[in-house]
Write a structure and sequence with these properties.
By secondary structure, the chain is of the alpha+beta class. It has nine helices and 13 strands. The chain starts with 7 loop residues before the first helix and ends with a strand.
């Protein structure tokens, strides 16, 4: 059962069926109640019409005439003492009216009172009635009750209407007339039968339609899931999930999934290149250092101690760069420390020959060490390519703090201005590794700038060389 309702299709089908079932039950109950109320109202109207017709007839009788009722429906005429004065000829049993008598009592006088009773008592009763009527007048108020009656051997349920009439010499009489409720009961039973048969069929149609529609709607999702499972099993990130031609949420899910796969493929490929390039960069100084140590072990007099120290320092710097890149890739937060970018620029330029600084005091927030590393890398790069001079400036531009490093070298070709920020990229491949470094400085500088909410770009300096501009959000 848990597996059956563990799918979206099953839950959607069950939910839609339950909602429709509740709606059908509520609508069916409302229809049945409305139908029953209308039919009972019609029966009451018919009973009231019969009661008023009988009341009109007896209102015209003379005081000493015997009352009689000639009607096919159950009718009773009673006086104020609940004595039956007249009833339908075929009436055999009745309930739900003022009295269950079906034949006038022998001791009842035509005047409507028992023998020996004074008719003045009736007049007194009339005076205490809530509605005063004149002789021959019929009350406008009608009282309705439900009951049963047996006419000519057939029993049925009836809706009874009670109407008061003032008769000269007889006082106030009450006429009870009934109308059959069999039509109402039959109609309600028929409607209920139709609902009991039709509602399950309708629910079956709703469930089947929902199942098919949901299956069709989720078919692309199953395709996406299957392709993702295949990609996971094969580890082939070049594959893509199918995109349905529906332009709906599922299609957008497929597009987003493909974008994620493309980004993941790029990241994995970048990581592979990074590992390969790092291994290549580490191989040379390690091999050189090993060779020098082996020669020194065999022939101490031939040991190049300065070269061994230089290779060790280069390895140390490369390891520090790789560690910083790993921390940046892991999403290390830069921090929220406030510091003066101008003072930091003067500090990094101090002691460098041919470097001039013009720095304003501009506050920024972040990691002072990482931003200082950016400025160091930019200065190292500028000194490596400058002919005679390097210029450093720091200024504020609105919400930005801008640090610019310019040199008077050959500059960077426009086609290479983005490529130089890639890892392990050196534009002059013929240059000695000892002179050119590992190609990580500018990549680290841009990553730090981006993680501080800023940018690092390269353009052309006024002196013709390269102009690197570091933009960071100005601290509030």
């Amino acid at each position: 059962m848990r597996r059956l309702f563990g799918s979206v299709r099953s839950r959607a089908t069950l939910g839609a069926t339950l909602v429709v079932a509740v709606a059908l039950v509520a609508a069916g109950a409302a229809v049945l109640l409305s139908l029953r109320s209308n039919l009972i109202g019609q029966a009451g109207t018919e009973a009231e019409r019969t009661a008023r017709a009988v009341a009109s007839e007896i209102a015209l009788t003379r005081p000493r005439d015997r009352l009689s009722v000639d009607d096919d429906e159950p009718v009773q005429v009673v006086d104020e003492n609940k004595n039956l004065l007249a009833a339908s000829e075929d009436l055999e049993r009745i309930s739900g009216t003022g009295t269950d008598a079906v034949r006038p009592q022998p001791g009842t006088s035509p005047g409507g009172a028992r023998s020996g009773e004074d008719s003045d008592d009736d007049a007194d009763d009339d005076d205490s009635s809530p509605e005063a009527l004149e002789p021959g007048e019929i009350s406008e108020h009608t009282t309705f009750t439900n009951g049963t009656a047996t006419l000519d051997g057939e029993s049925d349920d009836y809706r009874f209407a009670a109407v008061h009439v003032e008769v000269d010499g007889r006082g106030r009489l009450t006429v009870y007339a009934g109308a059959q409720l069999s039509a109402e009961q039959s109609a309600v039973r028929t409607a209920l039968t139709v609902m009991l048969i039709g509602f399950p069929l309708l629910l079956g149609v709703v469930a089947g339609t929902t199942w098919l529609v949901t299956r069709r709607a989720l078919r692309p999702v199953e395709g996406i899931r299957g392709e993702m499972a295949a990609i996971t099993a094969s580890e082939d990130l070049a594959r893509r999930v199918p995109v349905p031609d529906t332009h709906d949420e599922v299609a957008r899910l497929a597009l987003t999934t493909n974008e994620t796969l493309a980004a993941l493929e790029t990241s994995v490929e970048r990581q592979r290149r990074f590992v390969a390039d790092a291994s290549h960069e580490l191989r040379s100084p390690i091999a050189s250092l090993r060779t020098q140590l082996e020669v020194g072990a065999a022939h101490p007099e031939l040991l190049d101690l300065d070269g061994a120290v230089e290779d060790t320092v280069r390895l140390q710097g490369l390891a520090a760069d790789l560690l910083l890149l790993a921390r940046l890739d892991a999403g290390e937060r830069p921090g929220e420390a406030r510091f003066d970018l101008g003072a930091l620029a003067r500090e990094q330029a101090e002691g460098r020959a041919g470097v001039t600084v013009a720095a304003d005091a501009v506050p920024v927030a972040g990691s002072r060490g990482q931003v200082g590393r950016v400025l160091t890398n930019l200065l190292d790069n500028a000194e490596r390519h400058a002919r005679t001079a390097v210029t450093v400036s720091v200024r504020g531009e609105g919400e930005w703090a801008v640090a610019a490093v310019a040199d008077d070298g050959d500059g960077v070709a426009e086609a290479d201005r983005e490529r130089i920020f890639e890892r392990f990229v050196r534009l002059d491949e013929a240059r000695s590794r000892d002179d050119g470094g590992a190609g990580l400085g500018l990549a680290i500088a841009r990553d730090v700038a981006v993680r501080h909410g800023g940018t690092l770009t390269v353009g052309r300096a006024p002196t013709g060389g390269a102009l690197f501009e570091l933009r960071l959000p100005r601290a509030g």
